[in-house]
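[Discussion] Sanity-checking designs against the backbone

I'm trying to build intuition for which residues belong where. Below is a structure token string of 149 positions. I'd appreciate it if someone posts a full sequence so I can compare it with mine line by line.
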């Protein structure tokens, strides 16, 4: 069963419509994922080199700036360990490195934050693979046009 030229042309037109329609979503999805990738990269650099930045090891951040679920999780942990009244001055603050680590892993937003980061990681892999594929398809076409000129 061979395909007629009209069948090829209509499938090409359909593919172009799908491509033009989805390219806008691809572009905006890439931008959204890249914002979270930058946050993950910055916190990863800070986390890996925290021993070089002594201020990060000594600094504390008030829990009033963090989500309420974060404070509840800290209270549960301190209570389970019997440490709720051990350091009364530190009851309303946490080390900055804890926040950086939780931002890096998505744990600051709880279970769904970690799932969200996992989905973003999978999306980044898909976007990278499809981007490389589109680049490799485009490259031979450009070389062919240069040889013809």
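Best answer:
Here's mine. Compare freely.
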């Amino acid at each position: 069963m061979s395909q007629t030229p009209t069948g090829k042309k209509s499938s090409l037109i359909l593919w172009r419509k799908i491509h033009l329609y989805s390219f806008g979503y691809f572009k905006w999805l890439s931008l959204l994922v890249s914002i979270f990738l930058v946050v993950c990269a910055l916190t990863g650099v800070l986390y890996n080199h925290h021993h070089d930045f002594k201020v990060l090891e000594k600094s504390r951040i008030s829990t009033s700036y963090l989500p309420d679920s974060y404070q509840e999780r800290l209270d549960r942990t301190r209570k389970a360990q019997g440490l709720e009244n051990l350091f009364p001055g530190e009851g309303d603050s946490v080390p900055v490195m804890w926040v950086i680590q939780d931002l890096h892993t998505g744990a600051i937003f709880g279970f769904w934050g970690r799932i969200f980061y996992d989905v973003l990681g999978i999306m980044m892999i898909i976007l990278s693979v499809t981007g490389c594929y589109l680049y490799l398809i485009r490259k031979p076409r450009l070389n062919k046009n240069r040889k013809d000129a």
